[in-house]
Amino acid sequence: MVKTKINVLLVLLISLSGIAQNNNSDAPIKLKSIKKSVHHLASDALEGRKTGTAGIEKAAVYIEKFFKKNNIKPYFKTYRDTFNIEGGIIGYNIVGYIEGNDSKLKNEFVILGGHYDHIGTAPAVEGDVIANGANDDASGTVAVMEWAKYFNETKSNKRSILFTLYAAEEMGLLGSTHLAQRLKAENLDLYTMINFEMIGVPRNPDQSMAYITGYDLSNMGEKLNVYAEQKLLGYLEKAKAYNLFKRSDNYPFYQAFHVPAQAISTFDFANFEYYHHVDDEPDKIDYQHMTSFINKMIPALEGMINAPTKEIKLHE
After folding, report:
1. pLDDT given at position 24
2. Do 284 and 271 form a contact (C-beta atoms < 8 A)?
3. Please, which residues have CB within 8 angstroms of residue 168's CB and are 6 or more apart in sequence?
4. In terms of Cα–Cα distance, which of 192, 232, 225 is closest to 314?
5. Could you say which DSSP state residue 61 is in?
6. Which of 21, 26, 118, 131 is 20 to 30 A from 188 in CA distance terms?
7. Which pLDDT value is given to residue 26?
8. Is residue 266 part of a domain?
9. CA atoms within 13 A on the CB side of 139
10. Helix H segments across the chain?
11. In a domain, 124, yes or no
12. Per the structure, how many domains does the chain have?
């Protein structure tokens, strides 16, 4: 009986410890802020954020207001990188900018991105047709927004950073393709690009917290783990089988610049059943996991952004 009580107490203490870690008041990025933005971007009022609709316009305005409130400068004259789509549709990428604090390294850029559009509607379930896109990809969008806020507050980046949110990903990577080509034409010195895609649900505890697409193409996954001082990122066989490296917004930057440009996700085909489904709603997001992941990525990103040389390289 006594032994049983001790075991129960140990389990309770371990559980409370995990909760405390996930809600660590010292962590720079807070669950409350993450949850607020996901709930807004994936609300029914935004009607699934399909490019060219009033819903995605509301999303763009929300991101712009977030950037303005947190003193994130636009990279271009405004936050909007405008492009035209066949059929008379106009798309807007949203691009924020923080200049590096090193006189030499600030001329090199790191791009952090995610797509803020979604598909609009999906087959009805109990009368609901709005595909809210909470995990796909309000989660990645909010991560980029929160990192922009963090780096502006800390001024800890030696290289310059572009915080890029793309429209028309769901139409075939049109927004990221436009921006990559525009930046290449302007001779941007791009060091690395990371796209964050569907990071709102956790993987099994015996697996790496996330995986990186195109794992074997560069040493990015290995170096980010070194910077983070833990194995955050791993290899997912299905990512290779489904050719995910070429199916997300990192790929246009790889094509245009031929530098390490990869995607990071925690969705692994076994932990989320609502892809392009009306039930991809804010209540399906694990906010403790998402907050933990975003905070754990900070030292990894800082290590990459502040490395004295371009340590992340493509494999020949």
Report:
1. 58
2. no
3. 51, 83, 85, 91, 117, 174, 175
4. 192
5. H
6. 118
7. 87
8. yes
9. 30
10. 2-22, 31-41, 54-69, 139-154, 174-185, 220-228, 237-241, 251-257, 287-306
11. yes
12. 1
Q: 213 and 244 in contact (C-beta within 8 Å)?
A: yes
**Backbone phi, then psi, for 94, in 5-degree steps?**
-110, 125
- Whether the bond between 81 and the residue before it is cis, its omega within 30 degrees of 0, is no
User: What's the CATH code of the domain at 244?
Assistant: 3.40.630.10
In single-letter form, the type of residue at position 225 comes to: N
- CA atoms of 151 and 99, how far apart (whole Å): 10
Which single residue is written with the structure tokens 């994936």?
42
**Cβ-based burial of 310 (10 A; exposed 0-12, middle 13-18, buried ≥19):** middle
The residue segments making up the domain with residue 257 are 30-306
State pTM to two decimals: 0.92
Longest dimension (CA), the chain: 73
Give the Cα-Cα-Cα angle 110, 96, 29 (nearest 5 degrees).
Answer: 80
DSSP-derived pairing of the beta strands 261-265 and 210-212: antiparallel
Angle at 263 between CA 179 and CA 74, to 5 degrees: 35
By the 10 Å C-beta count (0-12 exposed, 13-18 middle, 19+ buried), 247 is classed as middle
128-130 and 160-166 strand pairing: unpaired
Residues of the chain scoring pLDDT < 50: 1-22
Whose structure tokens read 């090193």? Answer: 102
H/E element holding 110? strand 109-115
Tokens of 310: 């371009």
- Is the Cβ–Cβ distance between 178 and 126 less than 8 Å? no
Residue 72 lies in a domain: yes
How many Cβ atoms from other residues are within 10 Å of residue 18's Cβ? 12
Distance CA 100, CA 27 (A): 23
What pLDDT is attached to residue 8?
A: 37
DSSP-based three-state secondary structure for 84? strand
Distance (Å, whole) CA 278 – CA 124:
7
25 within a domain of the structure (yes/no): no
